[in-house]
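Appendix B.2, paired examples.
Example (i):
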Amino acid sequence: MSKSGLNLCQRKYALDILNEAGFTDCKAASTPIVPGHHLMHGDGVALQDVGSYRRLVGRLLYLTATRPDISYAVQQLTQFIDAPTENHLVAAHRVLRYIKDAPGQGIFYPADNSIQLNSFSDSDWASCMESRRSITGYCVFLGNALVSWKSKKQATVSKSSAEAEYRALATTVCEIQWLHFLLKDLHVQLPKPATLFCDSKSAVAIAENHVFHERTKHIEIDCHIVRERVSQGLIKLLPVSSENQTADGFTKPLAISPFRAFVSKLGVQDLHAPTYGRVIKRSI
């Protein structure tokens, strides 16, 4: 903690995970998951020691409380808790190698921050190779400070990318509503509606169209949630380009360059890095 703001990190906890797994002196990785790599059940030889995999993934889940950059990778690993294989363990070790690169990385909350909610919603349509369910990803900022994020598989199969994006929108709107109530209980008044950015023109069009069509009846509940909050002035829905979609890293594995851009937009920093002294601010 300093005059510039508050840094939350779990460096000792991250180092304990590396030490327990024997990865203290491992070669660091630039990303937590290999781009284009898909994990599946039964992919590889089943692990004899299932408990070690479950314990490792459980510890990584706790680490995501201050490391949003590993949220997607850990979400993928949790899908195979029931029957992990050697390939799944290798993927978990990849996350450890990424953590080794910057174990002190955490979230920074600047002292001179504005009271305005800005959020990003995204989905990766039918990305699960086994169930063809989509991945929902969102992140919510209070000013420039990241306060909420999620990477989660959707409960149902979406028939189109627009439907997947709209379900992600509904999930994000519910989170914004909860944060709005929380801030209200803390006697914090938001000066403007929360801004919600989405890179799907189809989903934005559905939200702005007050007439239900046959093609959107199967997502009518989600439509009501989003449209009602827009009409109440709780949120303001705006389009954003895919290149500026901050939530992109919560829905899919990224290559090195876009992944680094994703991390910088989250406003995270490594307090223990030699070059510490500035924060890369998120750009909308």
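Example (ii):
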Amino acid sequence: MVLIAAAVCTKSGKTIVSRQFVEMTKARIEGLLAAFPKLIPKGTQHTFVETDSVRYVYQPLERLYMLLITTRASNILEDLETLRLFARVIPEYCKSLEENEIAENAFSLIFAFDEIVALGYRESVNLSQIRTFVEMDSHEEKVYQAVRQTQEREAKNMMREKAKELQRQKLEAAKKGIKPTFGSSGGFGSSTGFTPTPTIGDVANQNNDAKPSYTTVPAQKPRGMKLGGKGKDVESFVDQLKSEGENVITQNKNSISQSGTKAPAIKTDIDDVHLRMEEKLIVRLGRDGGVQQFEILGLATLHIGDERWGRIRVQLDNQNTHGVQLQTHPNVDKELFKLRSQIGLKQPAKPFPLNTDVGVLKWRLQSTDDALIPLLINCWPSEAGDGSCDVNIEYELAHTQLELMDVNIIIPLPIGCSPVVGDCDGMYTHEAKRNQLVWNLPLIDAGTKTGSLEFNAPRAIPNDFFPLSVTFSSKSSYASIKITEVLLVDDDSPVKYSVETALYPDKYEVV
């Protein structure tokens, strides 16, 4: 198919958003869009209409139309499939199908349209991939921003401490009768290293026009930054991360001291054989119950830090009962994995790559079974007689073997709404700038598997509180795939290893 343009327009013919995919003049596109409302046949159920040169494929969206303009030679079935994908994209970025909401999110919609069609041809993408491509979420950027904010905070603290120190030295000098002068060296005293200081006798002889005498005070050692030195801001940042339970990898440096000896190696928090079990959760629940989408994607990566442990096998214990589909890397011995649940290379004489995170195992599970949902969210908004809404939200941890940390349930609010919270398990924050209420629960486990939040929202309707989204982090494994031991290929002797497990939602919402 060749898709000329995609547009969202009103039923009266006003164009709100339009994206052109082939070279064509602006006047030509505007003429095609202006002619569309006049061509719609009345009293029919058709979703396309043709002219001598183009084909209009459209779908009603309440008071709007999602419109595609294609060539007459394009496949009508492919056109309709592409149209449905375009129509599904709009609710992803717009809370309502209103003209002003479409206009406010025009750029996000255009970016999403560009992911569907390139140079007039449909790309092989689904809704989840479009969402990922448009968001362009970068873990490295988040880490960089966190480091930068911490460094800025530490720099401000150091600046305040330096100001207090200068003020304290100034007060001490004033008590001793010394008039402080600020030289270019940054401390007290002139740049030459000496400060003229009047003695007690000088003060007594001032009225007698006696020649004053001076004592010399050696200049203080400048306290500037030292290149190559380990800054306190870096140390405090690392200590802060460790106190929050993060695994911090410190690079060993063979720095030479003044005596010519090497500095001792810094012990890291991970072993030379390190495995990371990462699971990403995608959940979409209906507000009236039912599972619209459930998908879990897992990845096991192996990192070898010493060439002595390159030729190893990893023993797994698969306790999963949900029917997770497992897939090993092409270089992993599949027969060994099937018979003994071990991850090893097809060619045992070759080692795993050194100092590289290698993906060795993937697993996946898709279903619409309610029993697979780890955290159930039940939101009950009901209209009150005064034009407000009473909202009751409950959560229940269905899989009690999981421990979910820093759980945030984000409830959207109407613009300008100030909710009145009556009962709350945990904590809550009203973010007025973002028009949302954030319900925070530090930990959800078997001991705190249920909880509720009740609040009243003035000037609201039940649809205002959806879609409701959930974020959390966990060191538990949903799939129950565990590493039991790591063995050398030659003699099956055990190797010391470390394991890191992470479970987090890529998207978890109630719509």
